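One record is given unchanged without comment:
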Amino acid sequence: MLLIGGDLSGIQSYLFDLNHEHSRGAAKTLRARSFKIKMLCDMVLQRICRELSLPRQCVLMNAGGKFMLLAPHTQAVTDYLEMLKPETEQEFFGQFEGAISLNLDWQTPICFRDLMMNNFPDTLDRFIHNLEKAKLRKHSSYLLRDSAWQCKNFLINQQSYYSKLCTQCGKKTVESPEEICESCYQEIKLGEIIPKTQALHHPQGSS
């Protein structure tokens, strides 16, 4: 079998990376960012389970920005993860402008005895060690190809450039003073909606 690991890196920096001189909407922004991070991690995990036809019982851990998933150790699973990793890293790099990375690793093959109580601490140590090594190669499959840097991928596309900075994040440019960028506006709106929402529904209607 194989342990597939995921580790979100950069959470704290992203959550609190706001313009300290302007607190307008800060609580809503923090709420929205926390929600986005949790949902994106869950979405990747659910996608892996769905596309590899793995039951939810294979999810051994999903908390604190980390997940552990038990899967068959087959070439088909490895090929799938090799496809998923650059796609996921590209999406996270674009969404969070490099601030957040989801580091995937599947370098921990195991057998049944490795899951027994007496052996599991050593198995967990191996798993965490491999995840830590993956964190040292953040966005590598997107930014690096055939041992060469993909320089164009380091650039993050933005809207038209203006001379003023967003008063909320202090990073993206806006057309007029005291204005906020589209990303911050969407986060504030999401932060307003979350407390009023009782459930999330699939687009086709199933919860």
Observations:
- The radius of gyration is 20 Å.
- DSSP finds six helices and eight strands in the chain.
- Helices lie at 11-15, 26-51, 75-96, 120-135, 140-143, 182-193.
- The chain has one domain: 2-196.
